Amino acid sequence: MSTDETTTAVVAKPKPVKKLKPARKQVKAGDIERKETPQTGKEYNIWYNKWAGGDREDNYSNKVKSQTRCNIKKDSGLTRANTTGIRYCCLFFARGCCPYGWECDYLHTLPDPDNALPDSSKDCFARDKFSDYRDDMGGVGSFNRQNRTLYVGRIKETGPGPETEDIVTRHFKEWGEIERIRVLQYRSVAFVTYVSEFGAQFAKEAMACQSLDNDEILNVRWATEDPNPVQKVAEKRRLEEIGQEAIKARMDPRIVDAMRAVRALEDGDILDDEGEVAEDPESGDTGDPEPKRRRIELPLPQEATSKPPPQPLGLLSADTIEGLKYFAEIRKRNGVSAVINRKAMPPKPLTSGLGVADYGSDEED
């Protein structure tokens, strides 16, 4: 007895893309009281916009904890910038204190690392960068270096290093994809490196004067350049790859394929269907250190193969004799033209004395 079995394939429906709702107002105007820290300095620096000359440790210990904090899941939404085309984020949204909500002229979302900003000399909040960092490594930053690492100080450690790293990861991953985190145990310091520079810029403002799990006040600044040579090489390679991808994205793919085909023809390579260099099947995996590229072997001309090399005569070598014959031929050709020109030119009359008689007359008087 045979029965026909039918199988039905269940196709999973794709999840609908969640649409952004209008951004909510994080605070109401007048709800936040501005508290200024007691100043220990005696001089006001108009460049850094703060007091100078005080104790450095007292300045950090007297910082006031931020009264607001951004919540990406609740505060993200549509604003006027989504209709006007502005790509910069709202600075007060990152700090959690934007009172405008959907009426704000800037974005209330995380910066998109795939979309480049129209001006590379500005950060994701449309603030102008400077040529160098401040002495305290704070502020906007520098346009001469693509910095993706943040220095996070004044962390209260209550456990071993891995536990502190998990706490830092949980609080900082909200602002972007993290590449690596390094915690200096017993020094209350961590270095957070983001995949995108925009993520580091947003996280620096969002976590300034915030706390983790132990009610501390974080000191978030830009990190200096990593002295590790391995990281320097990796960063250089990453920047080169980004540059190559940017150039390739702006070039016509037909021109790229044509240049690749010309280079393969010059090197004697064979291209596959995808335009990549195919391996030579004759070489095989013999383990020889010879390069994979095969040069085009051009046949030698018949004159060069049939004519025997000249033999040296006497004290002079064959190359010297060939050179002398070459220069003799050139001299012979130039000599004939020189003789012709010499015969065509009239002889120059000889003059003696002051040459007074030669001035327009042949007479002595």
Strand content: 5-15%
Query: Could you give the distance between the termini?
Result: 150 Å
Fraction in helix: 25-40%
Give the helix/strand class: alpha+beta
What is the general shape? elongated
Could you explain the architecture of this structure?
With 365 residues, the protein is α+β, with helices and mostly antiparallel strands. Helices cover 30% and strands 8% of the residues. The protein contains 10 helices and 6 strands. The protein has helices at 56-61, 72-75, 81-84, 91-95, 161-172, 197-206, 229-250, 253-267, 302-306, 318-344, and strands at residues 43-45, 50-52, 149-153, 178-184, 189-194, 219-222. The protein has a 4-stranded antiparallel beta sheet with strand order 4-5-3-6, with helices on one face. Strands 1-2 form a two-stranded antiparallel sheet. It is elongated, with a radius of gyration of 39 Å. The protein starts with 42 loop residues before the first strand and ends in a 21-residue tail after the last helix. Mean pLDDT is 78; it is low at 1-9 and 289-298.
